[in-house]
Amino acid sequence: MTVDPVFASLWPRLLVGGLLLAFGVWAFRRRSFSGGAWLLAIPVVLIIRDLCSATAHHESVYIFSDLLIAAAYLLWLNAYLRRPLFPLILAAVGLPLVVLRITTGGDDAPLLVHLLTDVLLPAGAYGLILMALVDIRELYVPDSGPVVRSRTDILVLLAPTYLLPMVQGYDHPFILAGVMPLTYIAHFRVFTAYHHEADLMMREAVDFRDQNIDTLFEFMARVRHAILQHHPEETVLQHAVQTLVGTTGADAGAILVLDEDGATLRARAVEGFYPPPYAVSEIAKKKTGAVEKYFKGRPIDIGETVLGEVVRHREGVFIPEPERDERLAWVTQDAVCYVSSFLAVPILLEGRLYGVASVVRRQNERPFNRTDFDHAMVLGEYASVTLANLLNYMEVLEKQQLESELRMAADIQGHMLPSVLPRRAGVDLSAYSRPARNVGGDYYDVVSLDGGFGVLICDVAGKGVPAALIMVMIRTIFRLSQADTADPGEVTTRINRGVAGSVDIGRFATLTYVSVSADARTLSYTNAGHLPGLLVSCERGQPRRLGAAEIPVGIESDTAYHTDVVTVEAGDTLVLYTDGLVEARSPSGEEFGEARIHGVVAEHRTESAEAILEAVKVQVDAFVQNEAQHDDMTMVVLKLGGGCED
Predict the structure, then answer these.
(1) Which alpha helices (DSSP H) does 34-120 contain, by range?
(2) 601-646 pLDDT, tens per residue?
(3) What are the CA-CA distances from residue 260 to residues 310, 395, 646 (Å)?
(4) Strand partners for 442
(5) Residue 506's closest CA among 470, 457, 532?
(6) 377/357 Cα distance (integer angstroms)
(7) What is the C-alpha separation between 546 and 361, in angstroms, rounded?
(8) Which of 67, 236, 267, 535 makes a 20 to 30 Å CA pair with 152?
(9) CB 513 within 8 A of CB 524
(10) Residue whose C-alpha is closest to residue 122's, from 62, 56, 179
(11) H or E element in which residue 343 lies
């Protein structure tokens, strides 16, 4: 009795297909990656293909399934390329050919149709995957390292799937009994190769940031010391460029500042040998010191050289390979002023252009990539806020006016609060902050995280510029940490390390950080000495306190903070607030209290986050009447997972 080769390998193939799907789901849930959902479609297509071919064997089933799998790969790669050209070409050519094959007799179609569908289509699909993979360059495409590193594995593993049927045909016993079952293994190896490289890249990124985050903390401490000791502006600029060089792994860096006329740039701080981005005389090149002196003494007009371009457009410039960019191509031929990779970012002080920060690499081993550029942008933003703080504070000291200091610090604080809250399906978000005086100690921030949200709320002890400095530190570390972790405990631990190592004893901050999952069904949170958040049930209106508060940040530098996880239901409301709301007093001295906050939220739980927020504000204002506000009031409301019905 002869056993159909398709039936002979059906159950093992279905088993492997199920394992492949399970592995893909596990890998995707463990760490979300670009276009991962398209890869998960591949085992589903394979399982459906084999079920269909077992009941009614047609070559068209294999042709169509290979077309869908190629489309899944191209859509996954398009998440990095951001150009849908390749998937569109495959759809425009492949679908008509499959329809032609079916309508002209399927397996009995004319020879020309067989050639188009059995040879041209798989060759074209494989060619498009090849071109897409080659088109992805790690230097220019963020987070594309895993794809680039596993590119050879992908091409080798997919070659038999698409190229062997061209030679033998889909109905050949070798293809049916040998190649088709092996496609599961090929796709499984693609999954594991990519997943391995993604994990490796993540570990490298974490190691790199762990090695350099102490440098950032040191920079914060040195800047604060310079401000308090009334050091000149150049000292802070030199600290900033040293930190930028160290954290980006650059060979040299420079900060250039606009002259008072706003028409020219001059180098004010240089670290290492920074080659000027313009021609230098041969006499000056004979001595390294002469080149640096020439660079510091020669002004650069706005729009002149690539540094002037950064000023003109107020945008960073990223040139990983100068030989490919005419703006710096000439430096690759200069033995003294050679540059192998370049990036520059603008420094903006409260919307006003202050100057440019730039770093270069002079070795060919590792050019800057997009991650380095993003890292430099974050550090440039921190340097901008710090310099604004420094300049404003120096002005205050000169005028000896405390009220002016408070106004300056309030302006800094106002620029740190998010001007626009991010939006995601399934989460309704609203927030407000009202300081008791010109400058408050409250701060909140919201960031997008792989389809979800990260929400931070904190209360810094003290007022004025010192409190504003701590807010800048917290905001910088919070946003910088999102590049490699969204775990609230880990982020809070990093914030504590920076604050504890950079401020005086007695200066601390309480905070709560909540991470909302992409489906808005899970909350991960850490509480560092802050008031517990209130999670109000949609169905019953009962509150749940997100407590287990640990010590505030800034007290013990070696404190490790932990993450708690809670599951929520559709329509539940999360409320985060500072003690200014709880301690708001009526004319008789009675406090508003947590119970009243809960009561208002429970009563309005079927309404939007904005409506709940406004209801609390109205109740607080009615309660305190004309009494002066004695503490800052900050509140963030999240409506999770859709609406809430009575």
Answers:
(1) 36-55, 59-81, 85-103, 111-115
(2) 999 988 999 999 999 999 999 998 887 777 888 999 998 876 676 5
(3) 18, 16, 63
(4) 459
(5) 470
(6) 10
(7) 47
(8) 67
(9) no
(10) 62
(11) strand 341-349
- The full length of the chain comes to 646
Reading the block at residue 246, the tokens are 């160290």
- The whole-angstrom separation of Cα 444 and Cα 577 is 10
Rounded Cα distance between 636 and 557, Å, is 28
Q: Are 307 and 300 in contact (CB under 8 A)?
A: yes
Q: E-assigned strands of 489-555?
A: 509-516, 522-528, 533-536, 543-546
The whole-angstrom separation of Cα 329 and Cα 277 is 10
Closest CA to 502 of 236, 248, 216: 216
What values do phi and psi take at 457, rounded to 5?
-135, 135
d(CA 390, CA 381): 14
**Distance (Å, rounded) from C-alpha 494 to C-alpha 486?**
12
State how far the Cα of 385 lies from the Cα of 373, in Å rounded to an integer.
Answer: 19
What pLDDT, in 10s, does the model give residues 352-399? 888 899 999 887 767 887 777 877 887 777 777 777 776 666 666 655
Paired with 510 in beta bridges are 459
Q: Please name the amino acid found at residue 421.
A: L
Q: How many CA atoms lie within 13 A of 636 on its CB side?
A: 27
**Pairing mode, if any, of strands 264-271 and 300-301?**
antiparallel
Amino acid letter, residue 609:
A
Provide CB contacts within 8 A for 331, sequence distance 6+.
275, 277, 322, 337, 338, 339
Contact 387, 347 (CB under 8 A): yes
Tell me how far CA of residue 420 lies from CA of 429, 480, 485, 633, in angstroms. Answer: 11, 19, 23, 19
Residue found by looking up tokens 């230097």 in the block: 139
- Tell me the residue type at 422: P
> What confidence tens digit (pLDDT) does each residue in 542-591 have?
888 887 678 899 888 889 999 999 998 888 999 999 988 998 998 888 99
d(CA 417, CA 470): 14
Closest CA to 436 of 574, 618, 583, 593: 583
Beta strand ranges found along 435-479 (DSSP E): 442-449, 452-460
Residue of 457, 551, 465, 559 whose CA lies nearest to 503: 465
Q: Which residues pair with residue 635 across a beta bridge?
A: 432, 577
Contacts of 614 (CB under 8 A, 6+ apart): none
Residue 335, sorted as left (phi over 0), alpha (psi -120 to 50) or beta, turns out to be: alpha
Query: CB neighbours of 81 closer than 8 A, spacing ≥ 6?
Result: 132, 135, 136, 141
Judge if pTM exceeds 0.85: no
Q: Are residues 528 and 496 in contact, defined by beta-carbon separation less than 8 angstroms?
A: yes
